[in-house]
Model the fold of this input.
Amino acid sequence: MIELERVRVSAGTFSLSDVSLKVDAGKYAVLMGKTGSGKTSLLETICGLRTVASGCIRVGGRDVTDWDPADRQLGYVPQDLALFPTMTVREHLAFALRIRRVGAAVIRERIAELADLLGIDALLPRRVTRLSGGEAQRVALGRALAFGPQVLLLDEPLSALDEATRHEMYALLKDLQRQTGVTTLHVTHSREEARRLADHLFVIVDGRLETAAIDGAASIS
Amino acid sequence: MRSPHQPAVPTPRGRRRAADALFFAALGLLGGSYVLLISLMLAADAIFTTPQHFLAALAKPEIQYAIRLTLVTCSISAILSLWVAVPLGYVLSRYRFPGKFLVDTLIDIPVVLPPLVLGLSLLILFHLNWGTWKLEDWLRQEIGFPVTFKIPAVILAQFSVACAFAVRTMRVTFDEIDPRAEQVARTLGCSRAQAFLRVALPQAGRGLCAAGTIAWARSLGEFGPILVFAGATRMQTEVLSTTVFLELSVGNLEASVAVSLVMVLMAVVVLVVLRSLGMEHGG
Done:
């Protein structure tokens, strides 16, 4: 469960104030807003990479507002993915588990499971620098999900993909949610994505967050 | 507005080709003049010296000692420079802190200061009386580690200049590495140190090679500060740049040119080795 209570974020020229939202456990929420509306800043704030000016962030019922990003146990996929260029796909999937000093056998098992779920078995030994957009996106998802977070934060995960790949990813994201039960907050400016994926829909309008009906997504510009 | 049916107005092809030719000629001439100057200087050195001079110079025990000392001191000061440059470059690239501007400016001082002045400053630092306490005396008597006019002074003189260049290189290196990957690593459970060691540093391989190379090369070329702070005692603090000076000052032009060529060769070997290492790791 993700809960924001009267959160205020300011970064540079813009600020988002009085943001309150709640995503129930296991649900898929989509947050829409125009470019530059502060969607990314809000996600970074939930991750702990940006400090809140005021307000409270709760994940799984615990107040994590002042917690270090490492303690929040959230899976985060930034828009630019930020894969680790010196590592192979396998090392990406193992990364969070190695940090947690999980045993090698468990890591191997988990990698196999994730690779299967994401359809990236064949990519495991490869370096990430020459992956296609869709492949890189899957690797970033796998890296974020490897340690079994309760919450997944996705920043414009489909914006750089071609039409066909995007359709594959809709199915994959829904599948992931069903199989892992992960609570997801997905940030986008695409109405199509909101219609296809959202259980809950939130919209940022003029620095404020509003709840919207999902079939109403079509009317949001 | 022109109607779309009219043909586009062509630019005169002949004139454009002539202009392109002129452009390349200008690029080649201006850039080439410098390349030519360096080549001619090296060629002149090579023509001036003969294999006999070269071998005679290499056979001198003082010069053999200077070659060994140069290799050892340059390597130590390059390694020391990297140990400082990696954390300092990272801090300057990633964090904002009070006094950052001052630190940034201070690091540039060894770059812009005449090296001789740096040597003089080192000498004064080690011999200034702080009341009754003096750094050099304390090192000699209490620690048993004399510095001034000894080999450590050679290394310190080289390091004080070389490190500034290594820090600049590492800072640019980290500036070019996306901090986003380290942030993601922190959301995956890394401490800041783990994010640095596992994600940022492995991406800095090429920068490390470049910083090491530049620090080594600067150390090789260092002369002024070594002369002032470490002296030019044969078989003690004589490095190759000192040899060139010492041989020149006694009128032995042949030996100083031969030693200069040895330095050129060493520099080329180090450059080639480190560049190729950098290519392998940098992909």
